[in-house]
Design a protein that fits this description.
Elements: H1 2-23, H2 27-53, H3 64-83, H4 88-117, H5 129-138, H6 140-174, H7 176-190, H8 198-204, H9 208-233, H10 237-245, H11 250-287, H12 293-303, H13 306-334
Helix pairs in contact: 2-3, 2-4, 3-4, 3-5, 5-13, 6-7, 6-9, 6-11, 6-12, 8-9, 9-11, 10-11, 11-12, 11-13, 12-13
C-alpha cells in the first residue's frame, strides 16, 4: 500500500513539473511546440500528393498499394493531431513522437523522388517502394508460404534452445555439481559463433530442417543458460532464509523463490536468444534450407529480381519486429510487479 502511494505521489509530481515547465514557456515556444505536432500530417500529405500527381521519370505510374499505405499514414497523423487537444498528457505523448514521424515522411518522400520521379537511383538495384509493394502483392502466396516455413523453423529451434538452456542454467546456478560440468561446455561453445558449425551440421544432420533448427537452438542455448545461471546465483540470501523459516523444502525454494526472483535476468537471456535465433535463421536458410524467407531472398537475388528480394527483406523485418514485440509483451506481463503492477 505504501509503495502504491509513493508511485502515485511520484506521478503527481511529474505532472506538476510538466505544468510548471509549460508556464515558463513564451508564446513563441508554445506556438513552435504546437506546430511540431502538425508537421507529420503536413509532410505525409505532401508525400501523398507528390506520389500521385508529381510527374515521374519515363512515365512510371504510381502504386495504388503504396498510395493506400500513405493514406493510412495521413489518417494516423490526423488522429494524433485530434488527440493532442484532448488532454495535456496526450499532447505530450503526441509531441514526443512528432519528430520521428516527420523524419519518416521526409525520408520516404526523398526516396520516392530519387527513384520514381527523377531516376537518380536507377533500377534494378534501387526499385521504388511502390514497385516493391506491388511485387509483394503479386507473389503473396509464395511469400506467405516462406513466412510459415521461417516461423516454423524459428520457433522450433528457439523453444528447443530455451528449454535446454533454462534447465542447464537453473540447475548450474543451483547445484555446484551441475555447474562443474556445465561451465566447461559454456566456455568452449560460447566463444564460437553458431554459424561456424553450419558446414558440419548440414553434413551430419538427417534433414536440412533439423540441422538448421539445431543451429538456432545452439545459438539460443548459450545466452539463456548464462542469464538463468547468473540470475539464480544472484538471488539474495535472505530470500532463502525467509523461505526456510517458513518451513519450505529445497524444491519449494527453487520453484517458489529462486526461479521467480531470477525472472528479470532470464528474460534478458530470452531476448538475446531471440536476436541470435533471427540472425541464425536467415543465414541457415540462405546456406542450406530449401524454404523460408532467407531462401527466397537468395533465390530472387540469383535471378536478379531485386524488387522481390527487397520485398522479402521488408517482410523479414516486419516478422522479426512482431516476434520481438510479442516477447516484450510477455516480459512486461510476467514482470509487471517491477513497475508496481498488480
Amino acid at each position: 500500500m505504501a509503495e502504491q502511494t509513493e508511485i502515485k505521489n511520484k506521478n503527481i509530481s511529474e505532472r506538476e513539473l510538466s505544468i510548471l515547465e509549460q508556464k515558463d514557456l513564451t508564446k513563441r515556444d508554445r506556438f513552435l511546440r504546437r506546430v511540431t505536432i502538425f508537421l507529420p500530417l503536413i509532410f505525409s500529405v505532401l508525400h501523398l500528393l507528390e506520389h500521385l500527381y508529381y510527374p515521374g521519370a519515363k512515365a512510371f505510374k504510381p502504386s495504388a498499394v503504396y498510395a493506400g499505405l500513405i493514406g493510412l499514414f495521413v489518417i494516423f497523423n490526423a488522429v494524433r493531431v485530434v488527440l493532442s487537444y484532448l488532454s495535456f498528457r496526450a499532447y505530450e505523448k503526441v509531441r514526443f513522437k512528432s519528430a520521428l514521424y516527420t523524419a519518416m515522411a521526409i525520408l520516404l518522400m526523398a526516396y520516392d523522388m530519387a527513384t520514381l520521379k527523377y531516376g537518380i537511383l536507377a533500377l534494378p538495384y534501387f526499385p521504388w517502394i511502390g514497385r516493391v509493394l506491388d511485387a509483394m502483392v503479386s507473389d503473396r502466396d509464395k511469400l506467405w508460404e516462406c513466412v510459415y516455413h521461417s516461423l516454423k523453423l524459428l520457433f522450433t529451434g528457439y523453444f528447443a534452445g530455451v528449454s535446454i538452456g533454462l534447465a542447464c542454467g537453473i540447475l548450474a546456478g543451483w547445484s555446484k555439481r551441475v555447474n562443474y560440468w556445465v561451465q566447461p561446455i559454456i566456455k568452449v561453445l560460447g566463444a564460437i559463433p553458431t554459424t561456424t558449425y553450419m558446414p558440419i551440421v548440414m553434413i551430419l544432420a538427417s534433414s536440412l530442417f533439423g540441422g538448421a533448427a539445431f543451429l538456432i537452438g545452439l545459438g539460443v542455448w548459450f545466452p539463456v543458460t548464462i542469464s538463468a545461471m547468473t540470475g539464480v546465483q544472484n538471488v539474495q540470501k535472505h530470500y532463502y532464509e525467509a523461505a526456510e523459516t517458513l518451513g519450505t523444502g529445497k524444491f519449494g525454494i527453487l520453484t517458489r523463490v529462486v526461479i521467480p526472483a531470477s525472472m528479470p535476468g532470464i528474460f534478458t537471456g530470452l531476448t538475446q536468444g531471440m536476436s541470435i535465433a533471427c540472425i541464425t535463421l536467415v543465414v541457415a536458410e540462405m546456406m542450406g534450407v530449401e524454404a523460408g524467407l532467407g531462401w527466397y531472398i537468395n533465390w530472387q537475388k540469383g535471378w536478379g529480381d531485386f524488387t522481390k528480394m527487397y520485398g522479402a527483406i521488408i517482410l523479414i523485418c516486419i516478422t522479426f519486429i512482431l516476434v520481438n514485440s510479442l516477447l516484450e509483451f510477455i516480459r512486461k506481463r510476467v514482470l509487471r510487479w517491477q513497475d508496481g503492477g498488480i
